[in-house]
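Saturday, quiet lab. Running sequence design on the structure tokens for the scaffold JK sent over.
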């Protein structure tokens, strides 16, 4: 049993099932999709960091008060009895994911995922302190000196402050944030408050500062099952190989294939060029360290290198590799759809900028469907989109109606556990009850209490009208008396109705007397 098991590579070409991770240095890019992504970051983080500080009716606008078992969201208050709305909200989120993914791919990943949003902010701080892609690569490759220590130290100091602020804000959604801030100096936080601030700060610092694209590629399950929601009519970020291949540098002045006699390649030839280019990195790929880790074939596949092409035979791709350099996950979009692609649109902005400089039409990399790229008929608005959309619309409507029409009164009746019934000196029988009323509204309410069926020898003893303050849990002691000789079990109902008639509750219970 002490003999070692030899490890061999998968094939003679050196392909292995394990690919070591290399650090990705995303290049800065500008364009319409980058502006949209920045706007999403500002909007989403603005809500996260601002909402706990807003006030609403004298309290924190958004507060998840776990000890009191109440969630405050502006003018709404959710109680444990409203769990159905939380379940429906999760169903709506899942349906929205299906709808938007089937329509336009991984929009959530590219613009709204917390991993994407916080990573984008951490990249901004990294660029402020270390420079753009080339400078960061040179700094990491260079020896440790005063400049490197200062730049790295400044970056991690910014990361740590932002991460701690994030952890503090996160806890501020569960503990009143003004009280939490007031107890910071002198330090009077509780153990759990301190733990969650530091834990969330460490998670933010690690995920957004170090793991980054590895969370998307290996830890997030969405990347793995997204293909089940895609089809050939789903809008996705795609490279047009019929127009772009064969790729290669050229002098200015050569027109686009859309303007030259060459025209577009047939799909078979174009995809063959893409496959062979992926197996044989170009000098530009090697020089810029931009070649992605994704291959178009399994281990052992062999492809001949591309021949030299005359300038007139080249496609519109000039093989600048900028589309790969700007990718936050480090893939080459020219290799086709890959599960690592988060649909952020950075490669579109980069390619459009290059096309503008070359005088070529935009759209070599664009949002399109696979059928459209292949020159086939496509239909973005198809039956499944309408089905998902109608279901999502119906769920949203049901949730809104339920929230706006839910009762603001909770009423429960508890029988006296000490005695089943009590006989008075004059022979009449009494049962004791505790009526628990919960006023879920933000206003003081008055409620009338009555008994059904009226008469039948049963009489209600206790307050006929009670007043409950905002969000008050009010216990009311009641007694039901029956005439002498009443025995056995009878069904009764307590009726609680607000004076304005908006809320009415009927609670069924039982009255017990001596056995006949």
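Result came back. Writing it out in full:
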């Amino acid at each position: 049993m002490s003999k070692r098991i030899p490890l061999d590579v998968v094939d003679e070409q050196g392909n292995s099932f394990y690919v070591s991770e290399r650090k990705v240095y995303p290049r800065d890019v500008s364009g319409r999709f980058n502006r949209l992504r920045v706007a999403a970051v500002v909007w989403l983080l603005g809500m996260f960091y601002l909402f706990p500080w807003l006030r609403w009716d004298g309290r924190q606008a958004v507060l998840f008060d776990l000890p009191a078992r109440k969630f405050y969201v502006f003018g709404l208050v959710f109680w444990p009895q409203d769990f159905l709305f939380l379940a429906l909200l999760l169903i709506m989120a899942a349906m929205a994911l299906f709808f938007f993914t089937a329509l336009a791919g991984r929009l959530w990943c590219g613009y709204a995922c917390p991993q994407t949003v916080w990573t984008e902010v951490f990249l901004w701080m990294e660029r402020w302190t270390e420079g753009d892609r080339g400078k960061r690569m040179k700094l990491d490759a260079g020896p440790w000196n005063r400049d490197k220590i200062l730049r790295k130290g400044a970056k991690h100091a910014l990361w740590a402050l932002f991460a701690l602020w994030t952890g503090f804000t996160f806890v501020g959604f569960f503990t009143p944030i003004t009280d939490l801030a007031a107890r910071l100096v002198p330090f009077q936080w509780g153990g759990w408050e301190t733990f969650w601030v530091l834990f969330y700060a460490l998670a933010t610092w690690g995920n957004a500062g170090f793991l980054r694209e590895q969370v998307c590629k290996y830890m997030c399950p969405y990347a793995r099952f997204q293909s089940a929601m895609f089809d050939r009519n789903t809008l996705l970020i795609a490279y047009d190989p019929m127009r772009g291949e064969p790729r290669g540098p050229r002098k200015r002045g050569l027109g686009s294939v859309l303007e030259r006699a060459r025209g577009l390649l047939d799909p078979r030839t174009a995809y063959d060029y893409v496959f062979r280019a992926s197996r044989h990195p170009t000098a530009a790929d090697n020089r810029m360290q931009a070649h992605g880790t994704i291959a178009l074939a399994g281990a052992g596949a062999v492809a001949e290198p591309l021949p030299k092409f005359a300038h007139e035979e080249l496609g519109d791709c000039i093989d600048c590799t900028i589309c790969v350099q700007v990718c936050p996950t480090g893939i080459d979009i020219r290799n086709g759809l890959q599960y690592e692609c988060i649909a952020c649109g950075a490669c579109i902005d980069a390619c459009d900028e290059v096309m503008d400089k070359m005088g070529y039409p935009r759209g070599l990399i664009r949002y399109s469907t696979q059928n459209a790229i292949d020159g086939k008929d496509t239909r973005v608005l198809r039956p499944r989109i309408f089905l998902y959309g109608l279901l999502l619309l119906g769920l949203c409507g049901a949730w809104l109606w339920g929230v706006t029409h839910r009762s603001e009164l909770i009423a429960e009746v508890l029988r006296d556990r000490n005695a089943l019934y009590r006989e008075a000196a004059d022979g009449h029988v009494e049962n004791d009850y505790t009526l628990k009323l919960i006023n879920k509204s933000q206003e003081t309410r008055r409620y009338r209490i009555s008994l059904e069926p009226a008469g039948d020898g049963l009489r209600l003893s206790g307050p006929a009208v009670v007043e409950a303050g905002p969000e008050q849990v009010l216990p009311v002691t009641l007694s039901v008396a029956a005439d002498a000789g009443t025995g056995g079990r009878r069904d009764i109902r307590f009726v609680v109705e607000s004076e304005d008639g908006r809320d009415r509750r009927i609670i069924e219970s039982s009255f017990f007397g001596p056995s006949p």
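Notes for JK: The chain has 17 helices and 16 strands. The first helix runs from residue 32 to 50. Ask whether to fix the surface positions before the next round.
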